[in-house]
């Protein structure tokens, strides 16, 4: 403690002895950059460092070897838009503005290109960092409000945006256009649809490929952002679209995976577009994501930024679920059972069971986070906002729902106790979940009175697969979950959820 105090005194004396401009420059150099890598529908078991054996993910595995890997990390929601809302506002689903994937409608009641928007004046993580002197960028899928609404990226703290504004458009990797801030950027005259069936005939790669591959363009924009802003603190948010279907992976990667995986083509019978080799195609999407991560990490190395940059990698929700259109293929042709994408957890995307919420989380910050370390401290998306404020010195807004993870990440200081984790999800029948220590209470089908389920209780330390319901033996856990939800659920007329008492 004395050595730390002495070091702090030396730092204060050094800064005070510098001219004002030099002191400001030194402070700037000491503030870490942030690169936040958000995959789309990447399952908890889909990385090598989380037990995956079929899909190659060397760059993400390397990131884990250089930082901390969390084994009990959760997303903000079991689907895209609300999870991103939770991440960027630091408010769990009981307090979040956006709790589902609702498409925005214009003043005529017509569907618009984007989802329900964040409100004007929303306090967001990028906006807070921008106020603290950071330049902010986002390249990828936004999904929190179209251009022309209060939720557009440039109105929510993003200085430079390039990518998809709408999640539905992002179903195609060869879309008609992307957005650069408020500018619509045309990509191809013959875009490839995100959804179409081909009941007969040969399923050929070339019929489902366009001229300009959106992921490559967004990656180049991210690299350009790093080069342009290497001399000042930055926050770069990269919400990648992989491995969300449709299956539009680079053919060169598909061909590196075993031919024997695929005995028949996927014809679009489970939604999205056909693909000649669906299992290899899905693996290729994840390996393509891994290549993107590698490009970002290598760029940080080349620019000399690695040592002072926090890199965070996670996913917006669990792996893609099944589909009644075919017993072999899941939604969009993604056979996540073949890859054991949930790592043995129950449920998939759209579920508040573990497979829909538990996600990879890797954090690297050289000289601060021990390389090759792991943590079983339970954490979820609301924790990112206070953690990054603490790491950067940005002013922490009041009323956030998460806890600062720096003590766990760095091994310094005392980790704050874990608040109960709350999910209030109106879609997929209406669901709620509360995690309190090792115990988790779940209730589903809340909006289907004839199918509504009783409360379920699981001990996640003893039973991470949620196979043994303890509700009958642990009624006090149900009572505690109900009390927490009553306290932690704001009314939300746009995304209502009614929690039945028993």
Architecture overview:
- The chain is an alpha/beta fold.
- It folds into two domains: 30-418, 3-Layer(aba) Sandwich (Alkaline Phosphatase, subunit A), CATH 3.40.720.10; 429-488, Arylsulfatase, C-terminal domain, CATH 3.30.1120.10.
- Helix content is 26%, strand content 16%.
- It is built from twelve helices and 18 strands.
- The protein has helices spanning 2-17, 20-30, 58-66, 80-89, 125-131, 214-228, 251-254, 278-302, 354-357, 384-392, 406-410, 475-488, and strands spanning 33-39, 68-70, 73-74, 103-105, 111-115, 135-141, 160-164, 177-180, 183-186, 234-239, 309-315, 361-364, 373-375, 379-380, 421-425, 431-436, 439-443, 456-459.
- The strands form four sheets. Strands 9-8-7-6-10-1-11-12-2-13 form a ten-stranded mixed β-sheet, sandwiched between helices. The protein has a four-stranded antiparallel β-sheet with strand order 15-16-17-18, with helices on one face. It has a two-stranded parallel sheet with strand order 3-14.
- A hairpin with a 2-residue loop joins strand 16 (431-436) and strand 17 (439-443).
- The longest helix has 25 residues, at 278-302.
- The relative contact order is 0.16.
The CATH topology of the largest domain: Alkaline Phosphatase, subunit A
Low-confidence stretches: 1-29
Percent helix: 25-40%
The SSE string, one letter per element, is HHEHEEHEEHEEEEHEHHEHEEEHHEEEEH
Class per helix and strand makeup: alpha/beta
How many DSSP-defined strands?
Answer: 18
The assigned CATH architecture of the largest domain is 3-Layer(aba) Sandwich
- Side-by-side strand order of the widest sheet: 9-8-7-6-10-1-11-12-2-13
User: Can you give the mean pLDDT?
Assistant: 93
What is the name of the CATH superfamily of the largest domain? Alkaline Phosphatase, subunit A
For the termini, the CA-CA separation is 52 Å
CATH class of the largest domain: Alpha Beta
Tell me the number of structural domains: 2
